[in-house]
């Protein structure tokens, strides 16, 4: 079997599940922020090749905080929302307090900025 590269997001060990021909991060759920996997492969070799040919160059970005004015029966509130500076995917603020990577583009978030 070819050697598996480590997880590009957490650096953890990757492992193969031969039952489903899937390679993924071997860390327990919650230890890796992204938990990437290779689904849709028909053989172990195909899964290993797919895992190892991924783009291993890590992008970095910031959580961009913005305030959206929402008017309700009690007046006006300011509710913070966030988006990834690299791809623009929007997230709820609670998400950005615990997750260090954008799920869509994989960018590692290094801080915040107002937007």
Can you tell me the residue ranges where pLDDT is under 50 for at least 5 consecutive residues?
none
Number of strands: 6
Average pLDDT across residues? Answer: 77
As a percent range, the share of strand residues is 25-35%
SS summary, helix count: 2
Q: In whole angstroms, how far apart are the ends? A: 48 Å
Q: Please describe the biggest sheet, giving its number of strands, its sense, and whether it closes into a barrel.
A: 4 strands, mixed
Overall structural class, as computed from helix and strand content, comes to: mainly beta
User: What would the principal axes of the Cα set say about the shape?
Assistant: elongated
Describe the overall structure.
This protein is mainly beta and 115 residues long. Helices cover 13% and strands 35% of the residues. The chain contains 2 helices and 6 strands. It has helices at 44-52, 93-98; strands at 14-17, 22-25, 60-72, 75-84, 90-91, 108-114. The longest helix has 9 residues, at 44-52. It is elongated. It starts with 13 loop residues before the first strand and ends with a strand.
Furnish the topology, listing elements before pairings.
Blueprint: E1 14-17, E2 22-25, H1 44-52, E3 60-72, E4 75-84, E5 90-91, H2 93-98, E6 108-114
Parallel strand pairs: 3-6
Antiparallel strand pairs: 1-2, 3-4, 4-5
Keywords:
two-stranded antiparallel sheet, elongated, mainly beta, four-stranded mixed sheet, 115 residues, 2 helices
């Amino acid at each position: 079997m070819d050697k598996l590269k480590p997880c590009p997001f957490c650096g953890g060990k990757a492992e193969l599940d031969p039952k489903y021909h899937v390679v993924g991060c071997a860390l327990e759920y919650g230890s890796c922020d992204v938990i990437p996997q290779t689904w849709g492969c028909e053989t172990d070799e195909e899964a290993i090749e797919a895992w190892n040919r991924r783009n291993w160059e890590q992008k970095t970005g910031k959580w961009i905080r913005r305030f959206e004015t929402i008017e309700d029966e009690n007046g006006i509130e300011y509710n913070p929302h966030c988006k990834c500076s690299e791809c623009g995917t929007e997230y709820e603020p609670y998400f950005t307090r615990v997750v260090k990577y954008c799920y869509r583009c994989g960018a590692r978030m290094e801080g915040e900025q107002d937007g």
